[in-house]
């Protein structure tokens, strides 16, 4: 025993759920999913975004179904995607009137691969259980799984108030934050129990309990994982923009995934104006790949650069190689099994360059300040060439392509 642990940790056992041919839980690899931000009634815009998200690597795509027009558009979107050869399962996101939309639009109910229900807003208080039951019965009739998605921002207030009152009657053994966390967990578990009583199989139920605080998310999912064996969808809600959203999502979900918790993830980043929606898919993939859970694309290792590098050539080269790989990956993946395990190194100088390059499948060590203007290239641990002159970057890109193609 060395005292080092091997990663990844064993996964929490969960009941697998088939979502339109994509397995979630039950030992299947952690699934990457995302959500459109188009108006679903806009068929052209939604088809384009679903296709882009799927091309980027989203294995399930959720779309908003909030009114008759969007429900009517769903089968058209499904047909158009099929004609384009995009067979990603579509998940319908329902709030408030989901029971009515599914009943009034059977073609929509059939075209979707899963229904997301929010137990906090499934209907008016006195009709809540009835409307929840209506959606579950619709899922049974159409043989679809559901995700019972509790959300901190739309938590069942009746349940929260009851738990707060019970806590007060007991002399406040729990803080208000702990009571809220418990309400979130109970909302998910009680709803799952109700769905099972109605007749939905355990292999048709996925749970999520999204909150916006990192520590809350870890605590809530750890408790949920302890108290059930349903497949779990992880996501930090309102994660935020840019690096804030990426760091908060990675920190919280990374800890849970390392504990074996989580069967599918969505990293919900607030898009910057004009920003690329597929960024959240890329971040989800990078999180899973960095942690050693899945392999999606070849890794490009690049040194951070320092005072020994006076030009930006190696940063530009690393970025170009990374972008080329992402662009070509769909083709490579079908042609070359295992290509996603490749490692490419782009290093800034001789200090760590040759060593890191030798450990990669193919690597280059570019000249640093004061070094002779030559760049050794290593392939499979052996020095294979020395590139010189103004076209070092282009020559190395060509060598990487040839290495992969060969
Ligand atoms: Fe700096 Fe060279 Fe290390 Fe890159 S490899 S960080 S350029 S010393």
UniProtKB/TrEMBL annotation:
Described function: Converts 2C-methyl-D-erythritol 2,4-cyclodiphosphate (ME-2,4cPP) into 1-hydroxy-2-methyl-2-(E)-butenyl 4-diphosphate.
> What is the protein's name according to its record?
4-hydroxy-3-methylbut-2-en-1-yl diphosphate synthase (flavodoxin)
Q: Which cofactor does it need?
A: [4Fe-4S] cluster
What chemistry does it catalyse, as a reaction equation? Answer: (2E)-4-hydroxy-3-methylbut-2-enyl diphosphate + oxidized [flavodoxin] + H2O + 2 H(+) = 2-C-methyl-D-erythritol 2,4-cyclic diphosphate + reduced [flavodoxin]
Q: Where does [4Fe-4S] cluster bind?
A: 303, 306, 349, 356
Annotated EC: 1.17.7.3
- The residue ranges of the IspG TIM-barrel domain are 17-284
Q: According to its UniProt record, which protein family does this protein belong to?
A: Belongs to the IspG family.
Residue ranges constituting the IspG C-terminal domain according to the UniProt record: 300-401
Q: In which pathway does it act?
A: Isoprenoid biosynthesis; isopentenyl diphosphate biosynthesis via DXP pathway; isopentenyl diphosphate from 1-deoxy-D-xylulose 5-phosphate: step 5/6
Alphabetically, the GO molecular function entries are: 4 iron, 4 sulfur cluster binding; 4-hydroxy-3-methylbut-2-en-1-yl diphosphate synthase activity (ferredoxin); 4-hydroxy-3-methylbut-2-enyl-diphosphate synthase activity (flavodoxin); iron ion binding
The protein's UniProt keywords, in alphabetical order, are: 4Fe-4S, Iron, Iron-sulfur, Isoprene biosynthesis, Metal-binding, Oxidoreductase
Source organism? Aquamicrobium defluvii
Gene field: ispG
**Which InterPro entries does the record cross-reference, listed alphabetically?**
Dihydropteroate_synth-like_sf, IspG_bac, IspG_bac-typ, IspG_C, IspG_TIM, NO2/SO3_Rdtase_4Fe4S_sf
| Pfam families linked | GcpE, GcpE_C
């Amino acid at each position: 025993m060395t005292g080092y642990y091997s990663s990844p940790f064993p996964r929490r056992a969960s009941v697998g759920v088939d979502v339109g041919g994509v397995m979630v839980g039950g030992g299947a690899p952690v699934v990457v999913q995302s959500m459109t931000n188009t108006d679903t009634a806009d068929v052209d815009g939604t088809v384009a975004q679903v296709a882009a998200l799927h091309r980027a690597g989203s294995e399930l795509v959720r779309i908003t179904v909030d009114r008759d027009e969007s429900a009517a558009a769903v089968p058209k979107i499904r047909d158009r995607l099929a004609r384009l050869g995009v067979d990603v399962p579509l998940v319908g996101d329902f709030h408030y009137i989901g029971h009515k939309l599914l009943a009034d639009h059977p073609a929509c109910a059939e075209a979707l691969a899963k229904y997301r229900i929010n137990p906090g807003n499934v209907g008016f208080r006195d009709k809540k259980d009835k409307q929840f039951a209506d959606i579950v019965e619709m899922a049974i009739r159409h043989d679809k799984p559901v995700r019972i998605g509790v959300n901190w921002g739309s938590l069942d207030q009746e349940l929260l108030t009851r738990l707060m009152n019970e806590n007060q009657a007991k002399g406040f053994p729990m803080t208000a934050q702990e009571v809220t966390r418990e309400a979130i967990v109970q909302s998910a578990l009680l709803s799952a129990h109700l769905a099972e009583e109605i007749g939905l199989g355990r292999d048709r139920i996925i749970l999520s309990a999204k909150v916006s605080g990192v520590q809350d998310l870890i605590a809530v999912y750890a408790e949920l994982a302890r108290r059930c064996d349903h497949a779990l969808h992880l996501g930090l809600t309102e994660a935020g923009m840019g690096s804030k959203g990426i760091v908060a999502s990675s920190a919280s979900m990374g800890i849970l995934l390392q504990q074996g918790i989580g069967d599918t993830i969505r990293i919900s980043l607030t898009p910057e104006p004009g920003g690329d929606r597929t960024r959240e898919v890329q971040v989800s993939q990078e999180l899973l790949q960095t942690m050693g859970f899945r392999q999606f694309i070849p890794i490009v290792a690049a040194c951070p650069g320092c005072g020994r590098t006076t030009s930006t050539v190696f940063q530009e080269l690393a970025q170009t190689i990374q972008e080329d790989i992402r662009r070509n990956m769909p083709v490579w993946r079908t042609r070359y099994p295992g290509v996603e395990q490749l490692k490419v190194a782009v290093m800034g100088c001789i200090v760590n360059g040759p060593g890191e390059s030798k450990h990669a499948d193919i690597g280059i060590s570019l000249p640093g300040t004061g070094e002779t203007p030559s760049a050794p290239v290593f392939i499979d641990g052996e020095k294979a060439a020395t590139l010189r002159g103004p076209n070092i970057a282009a020559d190395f890109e060509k060598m990487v392509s040839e290495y992969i193609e060969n």
